[in-house]
Amino acid sequence: MIPSDETAQVRAARFRRRDHPTLHQKAVPGVPRDLANSIDENGSLVTVPPVDWIVCFVPGLQSQWWHRFVLSKHKHVYAMRPTSTGSWLLVEPWWTRMMVTILPPADAVKFLRWGGTGDILRVREAVPGHASQLRGWSNCAVLTAFVLGRRSWTWTPHGLFRRLLRETSTRRENVEDLLVEQFTRVISQHSADALAVSADQLSLPLEELLTIIGRNLLEAMMTPSLIEVCYTAILEAERYPAATRVYAEHGPKRAIAVVSRILDRAVCDGHIDLVDCEAGARRFLAMLRGDVHLQAVLQIGRIPTPAELDLRARTTVKRFVRGARDDRATSRDTDGRERGAMSCRSEQDRA
Question: Region Disordered: start and end of each range (predicted)?
């Protein structure tokens, strides 16, 4: 929904802003000239590319006198869009105010579930837009159309729904697909950053390499956005199992695969002796995580400091590697050498 890289567009807009002859106007008194000359062709100080909004047309939560005049499933409308950190931006018109707030994933699911009782549309906003402030009296349909930059004369949510549905770029959405998309983007980014290993790091001794991986994983686990996503995945596991599976596949399973390959290489080099490197990777991650992650998800106590996470990573690696080397020392027989050779061959086959 949010363009991942708009650097080229923003840079091009800056050049347009710099070269546009009509933009270099006389500054309004009291306004710095550099600001007055920094506006783009749309009259904005910053150039923001258009993004997709999730527009929810919903029945009422409580009975109102005016509900009899509108469609039963489309009595109210509001707009949402995800951020890059896992939270959601909510714009909901009320009778008395416009609520604009950032919701954590668990709270955002409540509004998405509400949207699922009616209809959910994905709509690309218009920039600079075609709406007008001269519209006069505003309700939820009018204000949502204004957020989207649409020129719409409808007064009802259902009228706006039909208007947006006629646009070829508009798509229907469902709650589970939206959660899968959001979880995949957030978890994949954190996993990629935590598990990134350079060629130079691969040549480090096993303990140093595992310490780097372990510290990165702990820091990622303790990131507030990932803690919120994990909490939501657990909370909504029964309702939206596909979203929970995404969390497991792009989080723990991906980490297990990376650590398992590192352990396979260490077995081939004779540094440790493990019969099952995947099981060893699971054990290492379980030791690393312990109950510190569960406490963070349940909001018990405080989040460990970076120094405490570093100490935990180093301690876990020392215990794990010592155990793996003790196993090697006690199993230096023919059977043990055969197991090591089999593990090495399996690593070569995978390579």
Answer: 324-351
Domains and their CATH numbers in the chain? 1-49 (no CATH), 50-173 (no CATH), 176-350 (1.10.357.10)
**Phi-psi label, residue 89: left if phi above 0, alpha if psi -120 to 50, beta otherwise:** beta
3-state SS of 131-161 is: CCHHHCCCCHHHHHHHHCCCCCCCCCHHHHH
Per-residue confidence (pLDDT) for residue 334, from 0 to 100: 44
Tokens of 288: 């690393």
Instruction: Compute the distance between CA of residue 2 and CA of residue 106 in angstroms, rounded to an integer.
Output: 20
**Tokens 């497991």 identify what position?**
248
Residues of the chain above pLDDT 70, percent? 84
Count of Cβ atoms closer than 10 Å to residue 54 Cβ: 24
Closest CA to 226 of 263, 261, 186: 186
Among 41-50, 54-63, 231-240, 303-312, the range scoring the smallest mean pLDDT is: 41-50
3-state SS, residue 26: coil
How far is it, in rounded angstroms, from Cα 120 to Cα 327? 56
pTM: 0.80
Burial of 247 (0-12, 13-18, 19+ CB in 10 A): buried
- Please check whether residue 91 is in contact with residue 152, taking contact to mean a CB–CB distance below 8 angstroms: no
Q: What pLDDT was estimated at residue 66?
A: 75
Phi-psi region of 186 (alpha: psi -120 to 50; beta: other; left: phi over 0): alpha
Residue in the structure block whose two tokens are 């995945």: 233
